[in-house]
Amino acid sequence: MAKTAKKKIAFTPIEDRVLVRPNKAETMSASGIVLPDSAQEAPLRGDVVAVGAGRLSKDGKKRLELPVAIGDVVVYGKYSGNEIEFEGQDYKILRADEILAKIEG
């Protein structure tokens, strides 16, 4: 999978939240059958485009580092996060702990 170009976005998530641009749904099955819109599953992976500063530690003295960074490709749960539209693009806002995995390479 090719990485998309990094573009500065005027959106800053709060605390440990992450803004993810979902990848497009598959339009063709593995065997080459074209899938209609009603049969396409919502993508469960996407590109991180913005991250918050991290949540505060329990003592409130330092910020905890997020496990993902801008440009990472992540996998998240089917019902995780909130869907939003920003500048004509669909995104998901997820808490860092709703991200299931980071895809390397």
Tell me the series of helices and strands, N- to C-terminal: EEEEEE
Sum up the overall morphology in one term: elongated
Provide the CATH architecture of the domain at 17-24 and 42-103: Roll
Structural class: mainly beta
Radius of gyration: 15 Å
CATH topology call of the domain at 17-24 and 42-103: 10 Kd Chaperonin, Protein Cpn10, Chain O
User: How can the largest sheet be summarized?
Assistant: 6 strands, antiparallel
Percentage of residues in DSSP E strands: 25-35%
CATH superfamily of the domain at 17-24 and 42-103: GroES chaperonin
Q: How many helix segments? A: 0
Strand sequence of the main sheet, in spatial order? Answer: 4-5-1-2-3-6
Distance between the termini: 9 Å
| CATH hierarchy class name of the domain at 17-24 and 42-103 | Mainly Beta
Number of beta strands: 6
Helix fraction by DSSP (H/I, runs of at least 4): under 10%
Unreliable residue runs:
1-5
User: Averaging pLDDT over every residue, what do you get?
Assistant: 82
Characterization of this structure:
- With 105 residues, the chain is mainly beta.
- It has a domain at 17-24 and 42-103: GroES chaperonin (10 Kd Chaperonin, Protein Cpn10, Chain O, Roll), CATH 2.30.33.
- The protein contains no helices and six strands.
- The chain has strands spanning 17-22, 45-51, 73-76, 82-86, 89-95, 99-103.
- It has a six-stranded antiparallel β-sheet, with no helix packed on it.
- β4 (82-86) and β5 (89-95) form a beta hairpin.
- Mean pLDDT is 82; it is low at 1-5.
In short:
With 105 residues, the chain is an all-beta fold. It has strands at 17-22, 45-51, 73-76, 82-86, 89-95, 99-103.
